[in-house]
What does this fold into?
Amino acid sequence: MNLKLRQCSAKWTENKHLPGRRQTKILRMADSGLNCRALKSTTSIEDGLNQCLPNLLECPVCLEKMSAPIRLCRNGHNTCSKCRPRLDNCPTCRQSFLLTRNVALETLAEQFMMESCGNRDVGCEVKKFCVQDVVDHMRECSYRLYDCEPGKPVGCSWLGRRWQILNHVQDTHKNTLVLIEENSCKIKNFHTYDHGLTTQLVVAFGELFWFHHEKDSSKSKFYAAVQYIGPMEEAEKYKYIFRFSCANSSGSELSFSRNTHMDTEIIDEVFKNEDCLCVSLRVLKHFVGDDEILRFNFSVALTDGKTSDS
It folds into this structure.
């Protein structure tokens, strides 16, 4: 059965009320013919729509691609939602606007004119109307390529997907300790020299996390934070907990808890803003033993209080 789309030509005329850029655009479109001509039977529906939709979806005012809600005038002309509030009449025919939306065109735009994420081949299903929106999304896409955070200090340039991180760390950085949900940690020679930024991988609740910590003598502070590796909206489901017990007989204790950070956050900024564990070295010295080892308990938990056995 042959597929034929009814010709949908738009007859454009010069309008003295329109700005020069708009008149030029209308005349150019008239010359080229804004037509969805009868398609040959060898042309798919999707290909046919992709041929004519770009012009149909162009706002007659800002010339940008329209997305829902698309508003109609009394004669059926479309205007984007950004331009509509600034107009008293339709820029094409000068008729008044309706409250009606062009739902059919909105649906076609959503199905055929959205840009896909560059990581779609590995599972990302996100689509955006604007190419720049796709670029912005890809910076935080959970299917993007990740750096090897534990290996950066030794020059590791590995890039891989988040589900490949654990195997890479275990295979390439065999001396790097992979942490779990509950950990007893210690930092040796804590008093005698600065500990630069150190990152370790944490495996908890079937998920991956980055555990960052740093001693900065210039600021006389110790920082620690945990990032969830994956979709941003999942980070708030987990929290990290630190507990320090005094090395002497005073019985002093120090604890800190916070929801895990998103993996798109820059850890230097987190430390700078002190939106993490941030303890003065004058306070922390009371938790360092005579052997100059700082001991503490570190864990990752679910924010709803459940455990992995629940």
